[in-house]
Amino acid sequence: QVRLVESGGDSVQSGGSLRLSCAVSGNPQSAYYMGWFRQAPRKVREGVAAINTDGFIDYANSVKGRFTISQDNAKNTLYLQMNNLRPEDTAMYYCAARKLRIGSWSDFGLYNYWGQGTQVTVSS
Known about the structure:
Elements: E1 2-7, E2 11-13, E3 18-26, E4 33-39, E5 46-52, E6 57-59, E7 67-72, E8 77-82, E9 91-98, E10 113-114, E11 118-123
Parallel strand pairs: 2-11
Antiparallel strand pairs: 1-3, 3-8, 4-5, 4-9, 5-6, 7-8, 9-10, 9-11
């Protein structure tokens, strides 16, 4: 079992920055992939970034060069640094974890564990 608790969401102006945190507890060693997803109203949940225990990192094309995923294993915390935020980044952001090694990192249906979400709102 893995428990995930996100924090750091806020309202910012376009061009601003935020850092999201995801505190991981329970049995974090069982997770192979850790990822960030987001869901805007009336839109499908989409993968933002993911990292796995082999050092793989990838991002959605829409955030490449602006967002950075990282983790602090000593603190059992996953981060998402978001720079140069745009109004289209407005969404509920979720931290997720999964055991499954095969399959696309961005397939939200393959993730076993989810946090409750943290809201990011970017105004123009």
